[in-house]
Hints:
globular; single chain
Amino acid sequence: MLSRNLSKLILTAVITLWAVFSLLPLEDRDFGQFIRGEATAKQAEFNQLVARADQYVAARQAPSLYVALRQLTRAERIDLLQFFPDLNVGDVKNVERRNDLILEHLLKESKAKLQLGLDLKGGVAVTLEAPESELANADEFERRAKLEKAVDIIGRRINGLGVTEPLIRPVGDRRIEIQLPGVNTKDDPEVVNAIKKPARLDFRLVLEGTGAFNEPPRDVPPGYEIMPMEEEEKATGRTYTVYYIVKVRPEMSGENVSNAVARIDEIGAFQVHLSFNSDGAKQFGNVTTANVGRLLGIVLDGRLYSAPRINEPITGGSAQITGRFSQREALQLANVLNNPLDVSLKVVESYEVGPTLAKDAVDSATKAFIISTSLTILFIVFFYTTGGFLACIAMFANVLIILGVMANIGATMTLPGIAGIVLTLAMSVDSNILIFERMREELRLGKSLKAALEAGFDKAFSAIFDGNLTTLITAVVMWVLGTGPVKGFGVTLTIGIFTTMFAALVVSRLLLEAVIHTDTIKNIRMFSVLQDTKYDFLKFAKPAFIVSWAVVFIGVAVVAYKGKGVYGIDFTGGDSIAMTFEKKVDLAEIRRVGAQAGLREVNPSYQKQIGSDLEILRVQTPFDQGLGFADTLQRAFPDAKLKFAGETRIGPAVGKEIQWNAVIGLAVALVLILIYVAFRFEFGYGVGAVIATVHDLLMTIGIFVLFDRQFNASMVAAILLVAGYSINDTIVVFDRIREELKLNPTGTLRDLINRSLNLTLSRTIITGGTTFLSAVTLLAITGGDVNDIALTLLIGILTGTFSSLFIASPIFYWWHKGDRKHVEAHHDIAPKYEWAGSSRASE
Length: 843
């Protein structure tokens, strides 16, 4: 047995250990203590440097130790590589850039590998503002359009930087608020600094007959300005500054750049290659044709990056930006240039944001997760005894590997991510239940435990594979097309599908074979539920179909009637009030007061301005409710001495782009599922699966609204959760129908569908029961967003189970007009009889 499973054993051990080490450290480490321990040379001298940096922070000359070290090393030209000679910084010769790379690496290494999101831990918030001068001639509609476009562009840019689920929304008519989950440093070098570059690209001519000046020139003609540019000595890596006289008014902007890519030139330097669209190519060709011999400055956000000479007309629709770029800088520059803005933006506020979920909400969610997981384990162990216990070990390994992968790709754990893990656990449980139910059938046929084990895995494989692959289609589409919570859900679920397959088909099998093939256990007791049933499901299909779609119609009608009333602040925007305080008020208490005041949604959080000790309470409410609620809070908590400090109107956190991406992504996923199921099964199965999924989504949304709940950002992921569960459940039933069509060549289509539904009924009830327990536990213990997700999942479980029995299978039956021959005519399940072939041959 050992030699047969040695490769599986080694693979499982290696992947599990890799996941464990990928998660270490579990918590952020103090940056100062960490870097002292990482220095491998001149430790005493480095400790003195760190002590001086600490004094900078204490004297408020720098907001953090990281910033203080950067300031000191730049001011005194200290090379940090002398303290960290083992760090690989490539061939970067410039000391400042090399120091930045070292500090960034050390800062990243000091952090926990798996970061929590803004809702669970907090992060950094940055407010950008467009100058009034650039919006002075725009009416209200144009202002809003420019700001919304900037929100979409910044969202794509931040997603390109790898930040998971950022919150980006307009504030007032000139500002944009950006909240970055998992960015816990006061001055993150890779993300916050990148946001400070809003990517306003201009091409400006240098004054004719002039070039680089070593000193700022005194005589500057009207319409021109002096712009400095850094140059680097290739031999020494030292930098120096030169000056150009550059035209104030650009010849053209970068709005017609179609693509920007970071590349390496022939001497190994990084540059950014620009491609223009047809209008941009024509415009750039005209500029270069009319100015051959002159220098053309490339200016990004008021900074001159390069000033190449135009040697000939450039009509090919492309150009290069050269300069002193590291690989990371070139990639970031290409990213922002792919998303140019219409208006320039500057940072006006930087805040450290507390968790948007109250501590009691996080604690209750954690408690509920532990209880629901424990109930799942007890449920599985009760039904499958020893086999269930081994399956739970495999499920634990599954979660461990998911978290390890997320830590390695830099994902942050947020509520939508947790929703993805919940669905992963449900699929993991389902995979093991499928295997055990197949084993039960084989044992009832009189097979030995070893033979039943082999047959159980073999027969369950197709259902596990197809169920997970159809869910993978949804996950990948959401990952690729989605943004914000949609992308976060897609990433987590994609990882979970692969780990679920590994856990079920490798880890579970390894553990079961270890105890069965070595005769450690002679039998596995399995308790039965709904065995040997002979329900005529199709008999009730029409009335069930009519009633369920009537419920769907009522729910959709209520949604249409309520209109925007079904949306929360995340979708509609609202008021944001700022309040100072002398004593903190628990966030859960603020939500409780909001509920008593009749406000359907209140989102409080504490924020601290970066570089300042001043902390404020910020509360989001529906429109026109902020001022009134501020008075309510002052009366409710007199000891806190709350004082109103300001109010702004905020835009939606889930913008139209996120909403449409979710809808488009789901539509694309359903089409791909239809194609896949039609290819793997037959087109009628695909129609049944897609209609059943649409039915489940509409019914879940309708019932959710009938419970007088509102949609928030997390609900986007919750709806996708239902889609994944519904598809997986339907595919299991279809797989059994396909098998029964092959095994029973003489049975009618009606009988075979009813038989398949009865054979999978035990698995359906047990799988639904385990997930149902988790959802009920979450619903009973938690509040806020977690409670909404739990309710959605609970509704989705019931509708998904119902649709597999009374929607998907009947639609397949009706699609083929109840005729088995109609099914056989469309795919290869028709039996091949020898006499039929002989008869045709004789004719």
